[in-house]
Amino acid sequence: MSLIPGMRLGPYEIRAPLGSGGMGKVFRASDVRLDREVAVKVLPDDVAGDQKALARFEAEAKAVAALSHPNILTLYDVGAESGVRFVVTELLEGQTLRLLLSGGALAPKRALDVASSIARGLSAAHEKGIVHRDLKPENVFVTKDGHVKILDFGLARRTPGRSSGADTKSPTAHLLSESGTVAGTVAYMSPEQARGLTVDHRSDQFALGILLYECLSGVRPFSGETAADTMASIIRDDPVPLAERAPNVADPICWIVGRLLSKDPAGRYQSTLDLVQDLAACREHLSESSTKRNPLRSRIPRRRFVSIAVAAAVLLAGSALAVWILRGRAPPMPASRRLEPKRVVVSVFENQTGDPSLSPLGRIASDWITEGLSRLSQVEVVPSTTAHGKSLEFSRLAGSQARQPPQGRQPQLARDLAQWLSEETGAALVVSGSYQLQGDELRVLVRVTNAATGRFTALEPATGPRNTPMTAVEAVRRRVLGVVALQLGERSAGVAGWDTETSQPTYEAYQEYLSGLELRDSFDPAAAARMNRALELDPSFTAPRLALLLFAVNGRDWPGAAGHLAILEGQRSRLGPLERKWLAVYKALVGGRNQEALTAAREAANRTPHDAVANFWLAYVAVLANHPRQTVSALTAPVDWSGYENNKGIRGSVYYANQAEALHLLGEHERELAVTRKGMATRPASMHLRIVEVQALAAMGRLSEVDRVVGEALGLAPAPFSHSQVMVLGALELRAHGHHDAARKLASRLVDWLNAQPPENAKRHGVGAALSRALLLAERWEEVKPHFDALVKEDPSHVLVLGTVGVLAARRGEKSEARRVSETLRLLERPHLHGEQTLARAKIAAQLGEKDRAVELLRDAFAEGVWWEQSLHADLDLEPLRGYPPYEELIRPKG
Asked: Distance between CA 59 and CA 61 in Å, rounded?
């Protein structure tokens, strides 16, 4: 039966055709009972008698009827009239995603908005056991007001079930319920769907991965000349990495797409709700990375400790810290101390091949053998970074007559290396070696020296093909483990048990990983790229994954961190005992459980109490959990801090800045200033140290010196936002210690200075955000209010913007508006907020004079994961709580 305008199907009067698809024609219609516009979809005449097609039609109706979600097309009615079967849905105005993509790739934020909406709709369907199975741009509709709707659940079915029949020559296959055949649109199928295997919600995730890849890059990840070629590509080929197709897309988004496109369903999200949360967090991260949408990046500098500690801790994460967690078990010890009988150090192996391209193998061999030894329960292994540094130092000294090593002994021969390493690290056992080429065969020689007796054990040389050098290195490692275990009385079962749980990484992956570690003197994004490349070459290699996890945790990239955690949890059998301890620390931090993270960090650091990197990381976690005394203790432990104290880059600055900030929390400002100036003696241009110097001086009321240091800081090279940090944090400290006039004067000085910045600086360096903070500190409330009113309209769920709007309302006495904003914050639901919204509500309550409520909310915020930071006691919005006993007790350092 052909429908024309004016015809009726029950109460629905047909107005005009809208389009057609594989499963029916769609018409605009009017519901004469309710006087509303609707869409009517009818089954075509030529398939009306087809029982399989009819079954599909009914499946669509039942699937959609079982769902009620704003991102899924709303079903109003199902009916039959004069032999015509039809469904009635809401009428949408807009365009399909396919039409939207005809203009090319979408901006990352827009693509994330679309993907997030689709994921939310799919999550609702998956919770009811419904799988769409035909997600594609034609089945995603974007309304005129920007809402996203999933259409056509005609291929949906409740799980578990088999995929169904197909004409694989067509780009779309539609038959239903024939075991071992396919259903869906070929270009957007999952590998298991293309193979006719059982599908579940993870098949929809794969299709969404293709959609998101296409939205971000403008091209599909899989293609072919025919449908069969495309299916083969989906099953067999790895797509071009999204980062190459779309270099402007952030790493966390690329990681999510990569996970969605995993060939193995187990590699995707086990719950689509987790995907929803990760996409939301990515979207929030993109919003916060925009100057325009993040005017409070450090407004009340809750994040100021992060701006100093995290930036460099990320650097550390890509180098010594990552290596230590992967490899380290024992600290370097001064030569004056006795040798530890169960401590082992592995030197960098000597390249005797004459081939410079094989030079990285010397460090790789050292690193890989150290990793294996770290798994022996009775062995303490000197961290790889320490062993590498000492090996290089020995090489320099051996070739120079002008420099004298400690203890005044000049090494003369390579055989002295074992003695040198033993003296420098306190290790009784030293593993050293070299490698040579014999034709196309690599030959690795190694010996284990007992420094206490001077005796050594020469192991049988290991050989392997030159083009796969890790074969020989792995053979050497196994032999070293056996010799060391025997000498130290380690049960052989411990070695054998480990052997069955790990596999050697490829040489190429190891090279990329080591290249990433070498970018440690400054935070270079290329470090992460190197780690990612190492994982591309060898996905089972846990070392770069751990390094990337540290990047993510320190940078508060929660989606990325959660993704790496999930993968590492699945690789636990490949991790050593110490690695698992630190994994527990990161897991707690990602989950917002800071006290639990501190407990886990203590347990991990106790295994290596004299290691500098372990103490540094413990110190970092301790201050986030409001235990600054633990931070000071860890950073002043009697260990070899030379790698920090002598480092003139960001790592050295952070070492001193973190000590100073912990002392600030403890109120020990004279010590704080002394530590800061000790660091500045060799780092006079460090903006990090200038910031903490100003804070110490401000806390002590030394106003003229504050002005002097601010003036000196303005002459340094960093971007204007870094300069503003000096003045903002100085003003906050002045205000916190009763110097209100001086604080307002410094804030006004900052306002004038920022307004004088050239336009290119304002755009590149976040001058607008800094100006907002300065106006707040200068108490120029009316000047800043319109700015935030506009921002909250642009992004109604931005936590920091909402919080400021609520605080400003409370300051003006607009109590109902302030409480409305607080309630909006309470209702926010998205992953990884870590108590930020609760902290914002506490500030609003404080400004409303509701002190008990404010303290209660603060306590909740800390329990939800807000990081304790030095600047909290000076927070402008929490000023009404100062002197209030419950508040003072809450923020009092706990250890």
From this structure: 5
551 close to 528: Cβ distance less than 8 angstroms? yes
Helix (H) or strand (E) holding 781: helix 781-794
Taking each helix axis as running N to C, give the angle between helix 384-398 and helix 417-425, from 0 to 180 degrees, rounded to the nearest 10: 130
Helix, strand, coil shares of the chain, percent, nearest 5, are 55, 10, 30
CB 551 within 8 A of CB 321: no
Please give the Cα distance from 254 to 256 (Å, whole number): 5
Nearest of 74, 70, 59 to residue 158 by alpha carbon: 59
Instruction: Report the C-alpha gap between 202 and 223 in whole angstroms.
Output: 21
- 697 within 8 A of 706, measured Cβ to Cβ: yes
Alpha carbon distance 246, 606 (integer Å): 44
Q: Is the pLDDT of residue 318 over 60?
A: no
Give 415's DSSP letter. G
- Opening angle at CA 429, ends 423 and 430, nearest 5: 75
Task: Identify which of 126, 231, 230, 220 has the alpha carbon closest to the alpha carbon of residue 181.
Answer: 231
- Among the ranges given (33-37, 163-167, 387-391), the one the predictor scored with the smallest mean pLDDT: 163-167
Tokens coding 739: 């110097």
Residue 346 near residue 427, CB atoms below 8 Å: no
Number of C-beta neighbours around residue 779 at 10 A? 17
- Sequence-ordered alpha helix ranges (H) in 72-200: 97-101, 108-127, 191-194
- Is 24 in contact with 57 (CB distance < 8 Å)? yes
Length of the chain measured in residues: 895
Residues 6+ apart with CB under 8 A from 660: 672, 673, 675, 676, 679, 689, 692, 696
**Strand pairing category for 427-438 and 350-351:** parallel
Closest CA to 39 of 93, 97, 100, 117: 93
352 to 271, 276, 441, 827: CA distances (angstroms): 53, 54, 13, 66
Is the separation of the CB atoms in 726 and 687 below 8 Å?
Answer: yes
Cα–Cα distances (Å) from 640 to 15, 175, 457, 615, 636, in that order, read 82, 70, 29, 11, 10
pLDDT band at 551; cut points 50, 70, 90: confident
The span from the CA of 185 to the CA of 208, in Å, is: 13
CA distance from start to end of the chain: 81
Please report which confidence band the pLDDT of residue 648 belongs to, taking 50, 70 and 90 as the band edges.
confident
Tokens of 175: 């038959």
Quote the distance between the C-alpha of residue 592 and its chain's center.
14
Distance of CA 402 to the CA centre of its chain: 47
Q: Tell me the average pLDDT across 737-756.
A: 89
Q: Which residues are catalytic?
A: 134
Name which of 18-22, 510-514, 620-624 the model is least confident about.
18-22
Q: For residue 854, which of 807, 800, 798, 797 has the smallest C-alpha distance?
A: 807
> Per-residue pLDDT for 300 more than 60?
no
Within 8 A by CB and 6+ apart from 250, the residues are 108, 282, 285, 286, 289
What is the DSSP code (8-state) at residue 162?
Answer: B
The dihedral region occupied by 251, where left means phi > 0, alpha psi between -120 and 50, and beta the remainder, is: alpha
The C-alpha atoms of residue 570 and residue 579 are separated, in whole angstroms, by 14
Residues 6+ apart with CB under 8 A from 411: 394, 397, 398, 405, 417, 420
Contacts of 280 (CB under 8 A, 6+ apart): 116, 830, 831
